[in-house]
Amino acid sequence: MVLTQTADDISSMRVRGAGRIARTAARALQEYGASLECNTLAAFTAEMEHAAEILCNTRPTAVSLPNAVRYVMQGVLRADTLEGARQALDERAAAFIEDSRAAVERIADIAARQFPDDAVVMTHCNSQVAIACIVRAHEQGRVREVYATEVRPRNQGYITIQMLSDAGIPVNFIVDSAARSFMPKVDLFITGTDAVTANGAVVNKIGTSQIALCAHEARKPYIVAAETYKFAPRTILGERIPIEERSAEEVTGSGRHLPPGVTVRNPAFDVTPSAYVDLIVTEIGAFAPSYAPVVIRDHLGWDIGEFQKEYAFTHHYGE
Ligand code: RUB
Fold this sequence. Notes:
Bound molecules: ribulose-1,5-diphosphate
Oligomer: single chain
């Protein structure tokens, strides 16, 4: 029950944003495991693997989801006894949730230093970690105002402006297509991300790459706030991040008649090449996008030669 409800919450976007999705999946695995009445380790493992698969199939783009699920599931897969598996599952889920929250705070501290005094900031979509950075910089007296986009078709911009307003930050709410018009007034563009690839490209809400291009043209820095579990390990093998395409009704509204021959396309994310990304701020530090493969290898513990080895966070999310 908790599992199907959570899977539905994520796919329908009642729970959304890469960090929240990851924590919600970790919590669902923890609760589902606790509710199972299996008598053998094999039965418990099989049930948990099935649950992990259901959760991972809810939204394809946010790599935070499989990274979180894999981290939690290692507790089950490495266990020798049923009791050990139950305990490790519980501990790993709790550790992931706690560490991912701490990562947001740490990123906010690091990123706030990158804001110039009296900064005018643009952001796109609703990113918990990007907003934490803006709020932290504002607490330090460094933010004058924010330009926040509407974010068609799901309007996540309304959540963003509420959060910024609650923090006492002056906000200009603009339609997505006004981003280039206002870019000259802006000192920096900041977003979160659903996935950072091995070549430093950033996958985020559709429209991000257009604004990044505008920022590049106007010579304004684009900063990406990304917990390390948003780096995509399999991209070191050249795997691509799948871009989720959602329903036509999100774009047209229900009941709208379309002329024959019209197909609605509704990709939820796009890819910003590393050339348009100036800085990626993680909980282990801030660096250029070219450092992404080092994070995947040295921090997340994935290497090409050992790719079949078990997945393990080796540092902050260590044993
Ligand atoms: C959300 C989105 C966010 C990232 C990062 O898309 O693109 O920018 O997920 O968010 P959706 P966070 O609304 O389709 O889930 O920093 O909160 O993890």
